Amino acid sequence: MSLSHKHYLILLGILFAIEWTFFAINPSHISDWLLENVLTLLAVLLLAVTFKSFPFSRVSYTLIFIFLCLHTIGAHYTYAEVPYNDWSRSLFGISINDLMGWERNHFDRLVHFCYGLLLAYPIREVFLRIVNVKGIWGYLLPLDLTMSSSMLYELVEWAVAEVFGGELGMAYLGTQGDIWDAHKDMALASLGALIAMLITLALNRYLQRDFGQEWADSLRIKGTQPLGEDEIVRMLKD
Prior knowledge:
The protein is mainly α. Helix content is about 75%, strand content about 0%.
C-alpha cells in the first residue's frame, strides 16, 4: 500500500472525526444517539483493526466514509427528524417534500438506499480478495449479502424496539406510522446494491479483456458428483 493511499485514509479519518464531533454536540435524543453510534463505533473499529491485513481500495474507503457521514447525521437528529426540508428552503427556497409530494420524512429511506449503493462495492472487494469468487458470483454474492444484512438490520431494529420500548424504541425504529416501513427499507437497500453492481458490471465488461471467458467459467460445473447423502457416504468410506 502506497504512502499516498495511507495519507488519503488519514484525511478521511480526520474529516469524519470533525463531522462526528460536530454532530455529537447536543443530539436530539441522547439515548437514541448512543444506540445509533454503537454501529458507528463497531464499523470504525473493524476498519482500524483490518487496516494492515486487509486495506480496502480508496474507492471503497470513500464509499464507506460517505455512508458513515450520512449515518452520523441521522443519529444526531434521529432519522425521522432530519430537517432536510429546512435546509433546502434555506439554500434553494423550496421544500423537497412539497416538490416531491411527500408527507413523511424520507431521510431514512435515502440512507437505506445508500446502504446498498455505497456498501455493495466494498462487500464485493471482500468476496473477490478473500473468497476469490469469479464471474457472476462477484456480482450476485455482494448483492445477496447486502440484501440479507439489510433484512438482519430490520430484525435488530425490531428487537431493540421490543427491548427498550416506549419513546426510545419508537425513535430507533423510525417507522413514522408506515406498517410497510421495513419492507420498503429492504427494497431500497436492494435497489441501491443492484445499481452499484450493474455499474461495476458495465465498467468491468468495458475494461476487462477476459470478461466473457471469466463469466462463462464461473457458470461451469466444477463438481460432477452430487453432495448431500452421497457426500456423507463418501466421507464415511474415507
